[in-house]
Specification:
The complex is a heterodimer of chains A (503) and B (327).
Chain A: H1 2-7, E1 8-19, E2 22-33, E3 37-42, H2 48-55, E4 63-68, E5 71-73, H3 78-83, E6 86-89, H4 101-105, E7 112-113, E8 116-117, H5 119-133, H6 148-161, E9 166-170, H7 178-193, E10 197-201, H8 205-211, E11 214-219, E12 222-228, H9 234-242, E13 262-271, E14 274-282, E15 286-290, H10 297-305, E16 315-317, E17 320-321, H11 326-331, E18 334-337, H12 341-344, H13 352-357, H14 361-364, E19 365-366, E20 369-370, H15 372-385, H16 401-414, E21 419-423, H17 431-446, E22 450-454, H18 458-464, E23 467-472, E24 475-481, H19 487-495
Helix pairs in contact in A: 15-16
Chain B: H1 10-27, H2 30-43, H3 50-75, H4 83-100, H5 103-126, H6 132-151, E1 156-157, H7 162-169, E2 171-172, E3 175-176, H8 177-195, H9 197-207, H10 209-214, H11 219-245, E4 247-248, H12 254-267, H13 278-297, H14 302-324
Antiparallel strand pairs in B: 1-4, 2-3
Helix pairs in contact in B: 1-14, 2-13, 3-8, 3-9, 3-11, 3-12, 3-13, 4-5, 4-6, 4-11, 4-12, 5-6, 5-11, 7-11, 8-9, 9-11, 12-13, 12-14, 13-14
Classes of the chains: A alpha/beta (503), B mainly alpha (327).
Bound molecules: adenosine-5'-triphosphate and magnesium ion.
Amino acid sequence: MVALTQDVHLDIRGLGKSFGATRALDDVSVEVRSGSVHSFVGENGAGKSTLGKIVAGVFPPDQGQLVLRGTPVSFHSPRAALERGIALVAQEVALVPQLTVAQNVFLGVEPQRGGFIDRGRLLEQTERLAQDAGFDLRPNALVGRLSIAEQQQVEILRALGRDAELIVLDEPSAALSAKEVEHLHEIVRGLARRGHTVILVSHFLNEVLELADTVTVLRDGKVVQTNPAASETEASLIAAMLGRAAGRAYPDKRPPAPGTAVVLSVSDVHAPGVAGVSLEVRAGEIVGLAGLVGAGRTELARAIYGAAPATSAGMAAGVTTLPGSPSGSLRAGVAMIPESRKDDGLLLQRPVRENVSLTTLPIFDRLGFVRRGMEAEEVGSALTKVSGTPRLEAPASALSGGNQQKLMFARALLAKPNVLIADEPTRGVDVGAKRDLYRLLVEIAAQGVGVLLISNEIEEILGLSHRVVVMRLGSVTAEFEGAEMTEENILAAAFGTAPAAAA
Amino acid sequence: MTAEPRAPMLSERLMDLGRRALVIRRTGILIPFLVTFAALSLISPSFFRFQNLTNILDQQAGIIIVASAGTLVLIAGGIDLSIGAIYGLAGAVSAQVATSVSSPVGILSGLGLGLLVGLINGLIVTRFRINALIGTLAMSFVVSGFGAVLTKGNLVVAFDHPDFQQFAATRIFGITSAAWMMVIIATTIGILLARSTFGRYVYATGGNAEAARLGGVRVNTIRVATFALSGVAAAMAGVLDASRVLSAQASSGSFLTFTVLTGIIVGGTSILGGEGSIRRTVIGCLFVALVANGFNLLGLDPFYQQITLGVILLLAVGIDAWSRRFS
Ligand SMILES: Nc1ncnc2c1ncn2[C@@H]1O[C@H](COP(=O)(O)OP(=O)(O)OP(=O)(O)O)[C@@H](O)[C@H]1O
Ligand SMILES: [Mg+2]
């Protein structure tokens, strides 16, 4: 018995947590063993992030006890947890945008010399951390200027920089592309090899099966099962998560007939990070935009939508010229699901209903006033379509990450666009709901909407797109259709190691 | 190894307090207001009198009008420090024009000035991207300066124009026209904020400006509109007070800015934007007025009144900050 308890790094005993009427965690008991990678999976809102936050001292549980290496502990702040060797990489990045990468990584634990911050060492240590991790980050870059993926990397470095014994990673790969995900996996394996314990929350079951020693499935705040990863498969995990088998991952493709009208055309777009891109999307077509993080895909999307200043030789939605402002784009029938729901999408303090209807208020307007009944009805049905929780009056901040993402999807849906620019539209969404969203995307495309889909998941791009455009360093380097649309071709073009199958 | 029952730790008790603070923030200032009201009714025989209560309403009319519009500015993520200066200038100009031309023209020119300054404030904050705190502070100097130059620092009197007084002091059902206007304006702004498309955009702008912009909201237009409203409201208050006493001093508004902000914040509207309501602001302003009235009626030293107000303000902001950590 003694040997066994020693082996347990963190014993989670009967944890319970409620937010108002929501039971986020209910009698959760799990043993996390030293030096293991322990994964938590479950649907959106199952309670994974809540568990991670309690472990890292963000807030205390209502019931239950954490036992760290045999000693009962209760943390009143993340700092207290950090002092006991527990660090959290939260699902939503929480960095100081005005500070540099290095300053964020070592915030609060800066290397000192004579009472002052030792800037040389600060930069050096950050550089070393980034190199070890395989991340391409400049220590002096302002965090506010970085993409979500890069910010996610800074978060990870921050946890690594504190040399914690137990690291909680809450969906660390959600925003990363293939290359960075590979590095992340290396990091996780390295941590475990050196005896660190990793708690990994992820919706990517292949990632979970590849990295984890043990997998716990949560559903509605309760533990369904805890098993060795070796005895699980994707199907068995999905069944345990959803309480049923999931349908097919990707619906049949329904490409538009040749000669269908072009609904979005842009030519020679220049913007920060975008160097002369031209592309077209036809009605009913789903065009995948692939590339590495930093290839300029989000920048291109923002330029087209008018979220960021850009110059071009012409941008049009159908016959309407795009005026380069979000309100103008919406009027022209172009909607965008932004990359960062937290920064560019959500009104966290406002109710879900107001979040979803934001872009469509003119429709519900009567003499300057909002028709509440009609609004609630339409928002409710949009949310149901994206399998989001129809909790219309809860503030958006009370929703789990994946459910917030569905809210962004519902907003775009409600705008009934002709063109949908979807930048990582399923980031943080669970396996089951993802399939619902895929079906929805294919459905609206079939109704004549042109979709420009940006995704770091090559599988998602391959499964949905009729055509794939690959960007690298701000330009389009290749375009694939039909049989040429393979993972190898896309990756080669994205990395610039192309065996030249370029268009 | 069973978990032993243990006494709640200090940290947990603090958390508990924090959660309670959240409840206080939700119910807002209403309970302290009612308690103070009841206490004053019991302690001071002259408090719960029609005369005293309508007096409070009359005196607070200007403040509540400015605070209602100021709440919009705050919710949209701005702040307007020029309201006191606008109040002073508009009062002096309206009294001056009322004597030299006519009362209606005097009233309109006061309000027009307020609108103008409000629009300039809006442009400064949106077009020139100057921080609202700094921009409107600077404007408050400019506007007060104009006031001093125009009136040469003198009191403007309109004693021989009793018709000008009718604007603020006509009694309807025993309540002054100033108080009635306050009720109408505060209610209208309240309904606009809670029910109109514009109100939604105001919340969205202050809650997350970038998200609002990407959601198609013309964020700058909304901001300008809130500053314009605030300017007009400040001018309205200035004109009403000038009309009530038939005189005005351009430099008289310095107290107003702080009284108004105190009322709004004590009411529970966050200075960080995105949150708040007119109902809260009205109750907050009335609460501050009750405290002052109580000090008067009970014959307490007015110096302690200031200390009390300061402590109330700190408590209000403290509770706000504290409860945010637990929401
Ligand atoms: N601050 C909060 N206030 C109210 N409810 C909350 C709050 N945080 C979480 N919840 C609720 O608790 C439940 C669990 O949320 P949690 O964030 O732990 O889910 P999750 O498993 O991490 O989901 P996801 O996969 O979407 O990230 C959800 O129903 C959520 O709405
Ligand atoms: Mg989560």
